[in-house]
Amino acid sequence: MTFMNYSSTNYTDPAAKIGAGAQVSELYKAASEHGYQVVGGSYPTVRVAGGWIPGGGHGPLTGAYGLGADNALEFEVVTTEGKHLIASPTQNFDLYWALSGGGPGNYAVVVSITMKAHIDVPVVGANFEFENTDDDTFYAAITAYMKHLLVLDNFVGFKAVGTFTNDLFRMDFATWSGATVQDMNAAWAPFLSELEALNISLTSNDTRLFPTFYEHYEYFGTDVYTRNATAGSRFIPRWQVEDTERSLPELLDTMRSMAKNYSAVLNVIKSNVTHLRVGNTPESNSVNPGWRDSLANLVIVVPVLDDAPWSELKTHQAVMNDWEDQLRNLAPDAGGYINEVTYDNVLWKEDYFGVNYDRLRVVKEKYDPSFTLYTTTAVGSDAFTFELGEGRLCTT
After folding, report:
1. Which cofactor names does the annotation list (predicted)?
2. What is the SS3 string spanning the chain?
3. Which terminal residue of the chain has fewer beta carbons within 10 Å of its beta carbon, N or C?
4. What is the pLDDT of residue 75?
5. How many domains does the chain have?
């Protein structure tokens, strides 16, 4: 990977060029050595260029600089017809637009990507947790947390990942680039006061300032994910939490039911990526419009044993699909984050691409006319039928 001063009609500032195989841990370290921060995923093994950015891409610095797709400057690709192309806002814009959020692994083979790099500044982080000693009190605290997301929504640069099971709530990490310990403490103070009023005590609480993002990530960041799991995802629109009379109670009842079944882990991922906050427009890239209207991204994970039989995997998948259906019924137009959703959702076009789908299909037909590139929920995948268990891919 290389770092440079990038100059174009749309952006003149530092940038990083990275290969498709570069991992987040490598990127963050190299950027820090050059005095920069860059956006990337939460887990150290996430590959930024080939899948994370084309899927949209959220991570610790999303609140500060937008989604991964919002930071893409240009893609170096090879098409399935063997053409070597650069896709940017000024060259092959339709392909650039599609690659910036329109789904991974589908339009061309990404060789490298050039993305924005941001001058490194101190970063404050926090994590804390509390246990469930009484169900009603615990879920009253979860309700308070969901409402507090509307407060956190106002803090420019703020990112938080709150995780809970039926036994424990953990603020996995909060990241705030350019802020101080005092800022972080003030941001959480109203919520912690509500916990105190509920007689809930924190079992751990850690807030620290680091001079660089990489040092922050090394301390607060997520370890390599080594478990198998079934996952699903759904955006939580702002209106759903603002409506405290009906929509929020319905959402919380649904989440509570999930947490009580199959040892589910619910991750409520908060960052403001509206067009106003990020500084772009709907035309800038093909990110799922649901991202822009969301207060948070809810990711549900059900752990699966390494030796789990196929029948158990099918059961877990059916449960996850049912849960996504329940969430869709509460907020039909919310959508979901394509990198963390179920692979067999029958409403995948609407949920993962929204109004962008038809335009993305045109790009697919132009740059991969043979439809060589395929995933089950990629644009154009309805041209084939995949027989699960048989492994055969047939044209429809």
Report:
1. FAD
2. CEEEEEECCCCEEEEEEEECCCEHHHHHHHHHHCCEECCCCCCCCCEHHHHHCCCCCCCCCHHHHCCCHHHEEEEEEECCCCCEEEECCCCCHHHHHHHCCCCCCCCCEEEEEEEECEECCCEEEEEEEEECCCHHHHHHHHHHHHHHHHHHCCCCCEEEEEEECCCEEEEEEEEEECCCHHHHHHHHHHHHHHHHHCCCCCCEEEEEEECCHHHHHHHHCCCCCCCEEEEEEEEEEHHHHHCCCCHHHHHHHHHHHHHCCCCCEEEEEEECCCHHHHCCCCCCCCCCHHHHHEEEEEEEEEEECCCCCHHHHHHHHHHHHHHHHHHHHHCCCCCCCHHHCCCCCCCHHHHHCHHHHHHHHHHHHHHCCCCCCCCCCCCCHHHEEEECCCCEEEEC
3. C
4. 98
5. 2
